[in-house]
Write a structure and sequence with these properties.
Elements lengths: L2 H27 L1 H10 L7 H17 L3 H24 L4 H27 L6 H6 L7
Helix pairs in contact: 1-3, 1-5, 3-4, 4-5
Amino acid sequence: MNDRFANVAPLARSLLALIFIIAGVQKISGYAGTQGYMEMMGVSGALLPLVIAVEVLGGLALLVGFQARLAAVLLAGFTVIAGTIFHLVPSFEMEAMAAQGEVIHFMKNLAITGGLIMVIIFGAGSWSADNRRSGAAISAG
């Protein structure tokens, strides 16, 4: 891994992780509303605990760099699926301006997935549980 990338990876990982951690916590605090929205979109509200677990636990794993590649794979898959169900598909049934907003949200999900793919390819970088466990030392460059 490029030393400069390894040194900035913890910041990038943290920013990606915060998206999921905050979203998961918001779903906990607005549980009934989120469950109702999921059902309105044709997704079983019974899946909400799983969604919260993926977001919060996956986000925390990414944040500390624990099994970061696995966490990134799970979060990337989740992000593409959720973006498709909650943003892309509904955009086909909306007026132009509302549809444009949903497509932008979907594209944001794809950008997040791109960041997660970087974690999948290059790993957690320095200052991560993964590097600490493997004994890997990354020199500052």
